[in-house]
Design brief:
The complex is a heterodimer of chains A (338) and B (159). Chain A has 338 residues and is an alpha/beta fold. Chain A is built from ten helices and 15 strands. In chain A, 34% of the residues lie in helices and 22% in strands. By secondary structure, chain B is mostly helical. Chain B folds into two domains: 101 residues, no CATH class; 28 residues. Chain B is extended and about 65 Å long. Classes of the chains: A alpha/beta (338), B mainly alpha (159). At the A-B interface, α6 and α7 of A face α2, α5, α6 and α7 of B. Chain A: This is Stage V sporulation protein AD.
């Protein structure tokens, strides 16, 4: 179980038996549309508000994950999820719809890894047989809350990122076939005094480095253990900063081994500036794209490092620096894990 | 100010910020200025065309054509904002599309559209001037201060 200072190792093999991945129109035009279960043409999803649309995304991803497995809703013990919007209402309203006992969490864009880590921990310790774990985000709801109205013509700097519209959900089970969650490292808050909310990648890179370093130290392995180290939403700047910093600290990570969900989801030429962000970014790319790679056997072991910046619009206005966090979860292909 | 703030940070954070800044993509300031100049100038050019149009075809003088010209520009902005074009112009032009009256119009209209889901009173009504409000507050206040100075100067016989 607990290994080192802040890492859990799961010896009972909690397994991701199915996933549900839903996206919006902008994601459909991206570089991995084939990894989505449902893609919507309309940002509104025929709802009255963007917040309801986000709730719809989350509901659909849960339903898809359940449908793809042979598990009934009633068999699932817990739903662990969260999102970015005030008081995580899209997630809580989803919990009301699906009617599964619910734990709401918040780690901004690191919510995907936090929920997966907690789910795996609960399953591993016998606290549940099946847990739905996921997260969602919507470009327009995030813009509205953290930045400007959707149609406002403000110029964004090249360091800013594009919030993903989508939801990703994983059904974690005690047994079954599928990728296995083998360990998780819970990150601590890293605050480097950066106050610019339009450069979250640069702020979060420090947290990613801290968690990655701790993970390898706690587990006593080196980076070559993993085929891929997948960061959540660092974008161009955060990826470069964190990779250089990791190399400086003496961890030998190859350029092609270190990928970012925020740079995987969209195509070159889409107006996303430094890359994608949002809780759904790491969720949809991991549960869709990278788990498919695992299932196809293209990779065997991956480490998901989801990064989140835990500021609020209020804290930014009051000139507080951005506190950042990163949680790491290792996922390995079922047959290989021992 | 920024330097003062930086001194309070622990050395680790200072080092990290420097490390991060080396890798940060900077705003292309010169290019942005050029784009702003061209787009802003083009918007003013359209404004001039509309103004001339009103003077020639309607009963306006050069002094009185200002208001209908502004209204027409804001109407065009409303259409461009509603159809989702103005934010793209804004990303390209920056200050060029933000400083003219069209930018002010866009700030009001985009907020009005955004908060429609919260109803007309508490949504649109209270949030419509969220972005444009400061412009009005400080615009009116500076006009007041300037008018005060002018009045005093006239009274003292300076001008």
């Amino acid at each position: 179980m607990l290994q080192g200072h802040q890492t859990w190792v799961f010896e009972n093999k909690p397994t991701i038996i199915s996933t549900g991945v839903v996206g919006g129109p902008f994601e459909a035009k991206g570089s991995i549309p084939e990894d989505f279960d449902i893609l919507h043409e309309d940002m509104w999803l025929k709802q009255d508000s963007f917040e309801k649309a986000q709730q719809m995304l989350m509901e659909e991803s849960c339903q898809v994950a359940l449908k793809k497995s042979s598990i009934e809703k009633e068999q699932v013990q817990f739903f662990i999820s969260g999102d970015l919007i005030n008081q995580i209402t899209p997630t809580s309203f989803t919990a009301k719809t699906i009617g599964i006992p619910y734990l709401g969490i918040f780690s901004a864009c690191a919510t995907s890894a936090e929920s997966l880590a907690l789910s795996a921990y609960l399953i591993n310790s016998g606290g549940a047989d099946y847990i739905l774990s996921g997260t969602s985000s919507h470009n327009a709801t995030a813009e509205k809350q953290f930045r400007y109205p959707t149609e406002y013509g403000g110029q964004k700097p090249p360091t800013s990122q594009w919030t993903v519209t989508g939801a990703g959900c994983a059904l974690v089970a005690k047994e079954g076939s599928g990728p296995v969650v083998t360990s998780a490292t819970i990150g601590k808050i890293v605050d480097m005094g950066i106050t610019d909310p339009f450069n979250m990648g640069g702020a979060m890179a420090a947290a990613a480095v801290n968690t990655i370093e701790t993970h390898f130290k706690d587990r006593n392995i080196d980076p070559s253990y993993y085929d891929l180290i997948v960061t959540g939403d660092l974008g161009h700047i955060g990826r470069e900063v964190s990779l250089d910093l990791l190399k400086q600290r003496g961890l030998s990570i190859r350029e092609d081994q270190y990928v970012d969900c925020g740079l995987t989801i969209y195509r070159e030429g889409q107006p996303v500036l430094a890359g994608a962000s949002g809780p759904a970014c790491s969720a949809v790319v991991t549960y869709g794209h990278f788990l498919n790679k695992l299932k196809r056997g293209e990779i065997k072991r991956m480490l998901l490092v989801a990064t989140g910046s835990l500021h609020s619009p209020l804290s930014i206005q009051q000139k507080d620096p951005i506190p950042c966090i990163a949680h790491a979860v290792s996922i390995e292909s079922g047959s290989d894990a021992t | 100010m920024a330097d003062k703030k930086k001194k309070k940070l622990p050395p680790e954070a200072q080092n990290y910020q420097a490390f991060q800044q080396d890798r940060e993509v900077k705003r292309p300031v010169l290019l942005n200025c050029l784009k702003a100049f061209l787009v802003g100038g083009f918007i003013c050019f359209i404004g001039q065309l509309i103004s001339t149009f009103y003077v020639y075809y309607f009963n306006f003088t050069e002094q009185t054509a200002g208001n209908p010209t502004t209204a027409t520009l804001i109407f065009i902005t409303m259409l461009l904002t509603g159809f989702g074009i103005y934010d793209r112009i804004g990303q390209f032009a920056g200050a060029g599309s933000a400083v003219p009256v069209t930018g002010f119009g866009n700030a009001v209209i985009s907020s009005a559209i955004e908060y429609k889901t919260e109803g007309f009173i508490l949504g649109v009504g209270s949030n419509m001037l969220k972005l444009a409000g400061p412009v009005i507050v400080y615009g009116v206040f500076s006009a007041f201060v300037i008018a005060l100075i002018k009045t005093l100067l006239i009274k003292w016989g300076v001008i």
